[in-house]
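User: Could you check the structure of this?
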Amino acid sequence: MNSIPPSPDTRHLTPDEIELWAEGLLPAARDVHIGECAVCRATAERERKLFRDLGQLTRFAPEFGFVERVMARVKIPAPSGPHLRPDADA
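Assistant: Sure, the predicted structure tokens are below.
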């Protein structure tokens, strides 16, 4: 009995699949599409370049105490209205 070989997946890659490709993690079955589709290949190459460029940026680390200073200035309003009080009649 002859079986028909599965056809390659011709759907365009999703954004998640393009990210996987840029990281070298795209399954081989979908990787074939990159070789055949100029649109997906161009999008994937832009994604890979973005990853490379982001990797070249200087790491940012806020100075010691930054979070504490910011949070000390954050004002969280107290709940108001009868619908937010636990003792309010339903």
